Amino acid sequence: MNRTKLLGTLRGLFIRDLGRFEGQLDLRIPPPPCKRKWWQWLFPLRPEAIILSTFTYIDKNGVRWEALPGTRINGLSSPWCLWRLMPPFEWRGIRASAIHDANCLYRNHPSWKVHQAMYRAMRCDNMSLLRAWTAWFLVRTFGPRFPGTLNEK
Is the pLDDT of residue 131 over 70? Predict the structure, then answer.
């Protein structure tokens, strides 16, 4: 591999079109239930939010990933003991998380494409390469797996 090709490949890893977001993510976080079981005081329930308006991520290939109103999302899937370091509704990853959670519910695409779209949306949202890759790896390893329903080529 010549030097020019190598530099072009390395530059492509860091500077490339990752897509864009359309619309604004509007969320409503319902209050937690008043009555809790004894173990919920030790291990809190994951908070959920409801999307109030249509929100779209368009990836570099032009594929539209939509999150429709009324969809329930649970934010970043960090364990409760790490919520101080990485809260579920952190500003840097919440848009990518909303796209990922909504499309995991819709199941219009295979799971690996949904996870890949989440990674690209995190990078589009200026999340660091290492943190976005770590989130992608954890979701890809421990997250849901399902076949898509669209005619994939």
Answer: yes
Please give the tally of structural domains in the chain: 1
Q: Mean per-residue pLDDT for 128-151?
A: 81
Q: Give mean pLDDT, residues 82-97.
A: 75
End-to-end CA distance of the chain: 31
Task: Say what the pLDDT of residue 153 is.
Answer: 43
Residue 126: pLDDT band with limits 50, 70, 90: confident
Query: Does residue 4 fall inside a structural domain?
Result: no
Taking only Cα atoms into account, the Rg of the chain, rounded to an integer number of angstroms, comes to 17
- CA 134, CA 139: separation in Å to the nearest integer? 9
Rounded Cα gap, residues 104 and 116, in angstroms? 12
The pair of three-digit structure tokens given for residue 89, joined into one six-digit string = 């509704």
Contact predicate 93/125, CB 8 Å: yes
Residue 45 contacts by C-beta under 8 Å, 6 or more apart in sequence?
32
| Structural contact between residues 93 and 127, judged by C-beta atoms closer than 8 angstroms | yes
Task: Say if 97 falls within a structural domain.
Answer: yes
Q: Which residues contact 138 (CB under 8 A, 6 or more apart)?
A: 77
Cα–Cα dist 111/104, whole Å: 7
Q: What is the pTM of this model?
A: 0.76
